[in-house]
Amino acid sequence: MEMLTGSDLANELGARGPLPIEEAVDYLVKKHFLEAGRPFRNCQPRDLLLQVRNRCFYANRPLELTCEHFDDAVENYFAMM
């Protein structure tokens, strides 16, 4: 396996800010559905967007579609009781 050069997602986001909507959705689908083996029928996109909105509102953060916000929304949405 060869080592690839370039920056990671955290550095890229720090340099350029929030993701454009297309990239944000691609990140969400790849990381939290395809890699996790989670079927799409378990969640509506509007529900995750509401999770992001609510978290930003209650944490007094700007409403942005970032990987961090998506990660938190998915963790909360799919929490097991």
Description of the structure:
The protein is mostly helical and 81 residues long. It has one domain (18-77). It is built from 4 helices and no strands. Helix 2 packs parallel to helix 4 and helix 3 (45-58) packs across helix 4. The longest helix has 14 residues, at 21-34. The protein is globular, with a radius of gyration of 14 Å.
**Roughly how many Å is the radius of gyration?**
14 Å
Question: How many H/I helices?
Answer: 4
Unreliable stretches covering 5 or more consecutive residues: none
Q: What proportion strand?
A: under 5%
Tally of DSSP β-strands: 0
Terminal Cα separation, in Å?
Answer: 40 Å
Mean pLDDT: 78
Task: Compute the number of structural domains.
Answer: 1
Molecular shape: globular
Biggest sheet architecture: none
Structural class: mainly alpha
Q: Secondary-structure element order, as H and E?
A: HHHH
| Helix fraction bin | 55-70%
Give the key terms.
81 residues, mainly alpha, 4 helices, 58% helix
In a few lines, what is going on in this structure?
By secondary structure, this protein is an all-alpha fold. It is built from four helices and no strands.
Ordered list of secondary-structure elements with their pairings:
Blueprint: H1 9-16, H2 21-34, H3 45-58, H4 67-77
Helix pairs in contact: 2-4, 3-4
